[in-house]
C-alpha cells in the first residue's frame, strides 16, 4: 500500500518503521521534520506539508497528541483528500470527535476509522500493540495489512467512535490499577517490607497486572522515563470524565494527583511517576 503518516512521536515512529519493513511505501509528515530525519535514511519518504504528503498516497494514518490536534489535522486533510481515500486515526481522542470526522468523511466520499492503540512504546517497538477499531467493518477488513504490521491483538469494536470508547475504558482500568499499586507500595514501606519482594511474590497471582510487571520496578527505582506521557494520560482521563453516564470516582482522584505532578514539571514523564505524588502526599 501507499501509506501516508502524520505524527511521529514515541509511538508513531516505530509503527512507521514496521509498515516500511512490511513492504509498504510510507510517506511521513511531522511538525518537526528535523526530529525524524533518521526515517529518511531507512528509505521512508518525508514531506514538508500535508498537501505534499496526500498526493503520493491512498491511505492516510494520523497519530498526534490531543483531540484539538486531530481536529486541526483533519481540517487540513479534508481540503486535499480525494474521494475514495481512507484515513485511520490512531490517536486516543474523544469518541464524539471520531463520530464527527466519520460523518464528515462520508459526505466527502472518504472512509475514516478510529483506531486507538494500547501497549505503550514497548508494544510499538515490538509490533505487539492492541488496536481498537471503530467505523465500517468492510473498511476495517481492507485495512488489515496496516493493522497487522504492528498489531498483535486487532479488534473491530463497532460503529464510528467505538474504538475510542473501548480505549477510554482501558485507561480507566489502568488509572485505578496504578493507584492501587501506589497504595500497596506505600503500605509495604510503612510495614518495613521491600516493594521489590512484593512484586516478586504477587505479580503472577490474582493481584498481578501488566502495570505491576512493567512499571512496578520502575516506580521503586524512580525511573520515570516515559513509555506513555503523563500529559497524554491526563488527556485521556479528561475524555473519560467528560461523559456523564456514570461517576468515575477513582479517575477523579487519580487525575488530580497527575495534575499536581504536571504542576511540578512531570508532564513528560511516564505514568509510573504517580508513585512520586503518592509518596509526597500520603
From TrEMBL:
<comment type="similarity">
    <text>Belongs to the HIBADH-related family.</text>
</comment>
<dbReference type="InterPro" id="IPR006115">
    <property type="entry name" value="6PGDH_NADP-bd"/>
</dbReference>
<dbReference type="InterPro" id="IPR015815">
    <property type="entry name" value="HIBADH-related"/>
</dbReference>
<keyword id="KW-0560">Oxidoreductase</keyword>
<dbReference type="InterPro" id="IPR029154">
    <property type="entry name" value="HIBADH-like_NADP-bd"/>
</dbReference>
<feature type="domain" description="6-phosphogluconate dehydrogenase NADP-binding">
    <location>
        <begin position="2"/>
        <end position="158"/>
    </location>
</feature>
<dbReference type="InterPro" id="IPR008927">
    <property type="entry name" value="6-PGluconate_DH-like_C_sf"/>
</dbReference>
<keyword id="KW-0520">NAD</keyword>
<dbReference type="Pfam" id="PF14833">
    <property type="entry name" value="NAD_binding_11"/>
</dbReference>
<dbReference type="Pfam" id="PF03446">
    <property type="entry name" value="NAD_binding_2"/>
</dbReference>
<dbReference type="InterPro" id="IPR013328">
    <property type="entry name" value="6PGD_dom2"/>
</dbReference>
<dbReference type="InterPro" id="IPR036291">
    <property type="entry name" value="NAD(P)-bd_dom_sf"/>
</dbReference>
<feature type="domain" description="3-hydroxyisobutyrate dehydrogenase-like NAD-binding">
    <location>
        <begin position="161"/>
        <end position="277"/>
    </location>
</feature>
<protein>
    <submittedName>
        <fullName>NAD(P)-dependent oxidoreductase</fullName>
    </submittedName>
</protein>
